[in-house]
Amino acid sequence: MFRSQYDTDVTTFSPQGRLLQVEYAMEAVKQGSAVVGVCSATHVVLAALKRSFSDLAWHQRKIVPIDEHIGVAISGIAADARVLTKRMRDECLQHRFVYGDAMPVGRLVHLVADLCQKCTQRISRRPYGVGLLVAGVDESGPHLYQTCPSGEVYDLVGMALGARSQSARTYLERHMDEFSSASREALIRHALWALNETLASAKDQHLSAENCAVGVVSIGDDMRFHLYEHEQVQPLLDACAFPKSGGTATETSTEQAPQNVTDSDEHHDATMQQDTP
Amino acid sequence: MIETPTHTTEPIVTGSSVLGVQCVDGVVLACDTLASYGSLARFQRITRLHQPAPGVVIAGGGEYSDLQQLFRITDNIFRQEFCQEDGYELSPRALHSYLARVLYGRRSRMDPLYNSLAVAGKGRFLGCIDLYGTAFESEAVATGIGALLALPLIRKQWHAALAMDEGVRLLEECLRVLYYRDCRALRSVQVAKVSDSGEVLISEPYELSNLQWKVAQAAEEV
């Protein structure tokens, strides 16, 4: 990382008009393991690659149910994500208590965005180093949103965040015409295929029931967020029929960094910077 | 010892009953246009019906100043919703729940808003809230003394295929009975119709016709 005299606090612009601390926070999002979200006319699917920071540890949680109708996938500093998801749960509960009704997804996401934005305008605050993919349904249909540490929000049909997510985004861009009419099964397959693209081939990684989680929510009578983990994921993976090698050949393997280390994986940053929105 | 404030536990200028009924093509609300000062029929042409947003009507009885405050609160949240500019709108059911929370919150602070409300809205919504925050939905609601005098009459004649015009006639009949028997009721009334699609029609105040005071004689003879 280069150093600049304008990156010591979050509120000072560089002469180029950039807020470097906020940009560094955006980099933290790219250090997390990959998460993928895709949205059709009827369903939203999240898929996530879970890391374990040691062989002695369980894999970390990447997809968090927020309310009956909303779930989020997180990438970046897990501790920050916990704070944000807790707040989202509180807001959803509050909304249910006051209005007797499920919170609109857009409302919730903009609330989180405001929270993130506040951290970019106060000298005493640090931006949240976490990106969220928010999947949910409400009266206006299925929604997939992305939030950034900068406070920006994107309404999307497909997105991937985290380490090596560029290859997943390439996959999503290539297939995005198929999403809107895709069935539940097809959409899950797309999400897992995209996630599979982010794997490092040399490490001989592959998606398994241990390191993978899938979340699905749909319009209609159900309107509930379903989370599939552990042995529940296996049938979904079996339906995908991945090629044996797994991952893309172009990526070179690096040791996967724990989520709160922000200085490794530098050569990945260089390739990914260009597609930061 | 801190003295409990008691000035809000006694209403001063009050409205009487509100009636509401669900029909096959919408909801009808009705009430008279009187705000009494004690037993004095003090304000005879006030409105107790309020339309805060398209497709929603609320009506209330009890302390009239508190009712005006509730109307302001309702206007306010609809304004806030509008300013969010995200395309979501507050459903009548959500408003009903919100008002129930407001009333419950106030009574829990020992500072109640002294009202009972009926909320009607598009999608055939009809609900009722009292000053304690008790809230429920029903195909027929009546507040105040109307719950005792009018509700049995509405229930007796209610059927699932009731048209809105029939509903209006049914509520007019109930208002007539209330005018006979409720000393805080008035002959001048207002009716609001909310169709399924959200079209709202609030009538100008008009006088009840066909009043039969012979019943008074009959009641005396009993």
UniProtKB/TrEMBL annotation, chain A:
It comes from Cyanidioschyzon merolae (strain NIES-3377 / 10D). The 26S proteasome consists of a 20S proteasome core and two 19S regulatory subunits. Keywords: Cytoplasm, Nucleus, Proteasome. This is Proteasome subunit alpha type. Belongs to the peptidase T1A family. PANTHER family: PROTEASOME SUBUNIT ALPHA/BETA (PTHR11599). The keyword Cytoplasm applies. The keyword Cytoplasm applies. It is found in: Cytoplasm; Nucleus. Residues 244-277 are annotated as: Disordered. Residues 6-28 form the Proteasome alpha-type subunits domain. CDD domains: proteasome_alpha_type_1. PROSITE patterns: PROTEASOME_ALPHA_1 (PS00388), PROTEASOME_ALPHA_2 (PS51475). Residues 247-262 have a biased composition (Polar residues). Pfam families: Proteasome, Proteasome_A_N. GO terms for biological process: ubiquitin-dependent protein catabolic process. GO terms for cellular component: cytoplasm; nucleus; proteasome core complex, alpha-subunit complex.
From TrEMBL, chain B:
It is found in: Cytoplasm; Nucleus. The keyword Hydrolase does not apply. It comes from Cyanidioschyzon merolae (strain NIES-3377 / 10D) (Unicellular red alga). Pfam families: Proteasome (PF00227). It comes from the Eukaryota. Keywords: Cytoplasm, Nucleus, Proteasome. Non-catalytic component of the proteasome. GO terms for cellular component: cytoplasm; nucleus; proteasome core complex, beta-subunit complex. The keyword 4Fe-4S does not apply. This is Proteasome subunit beta. Belongs to the peptidase T1B family. One of its GO terms (biological process) is proteolysis involved in protein catabolic process. Gene3D superfamilies: Glutamine Phosphoribosylpyrophosphate, subunit 1, domain 1.
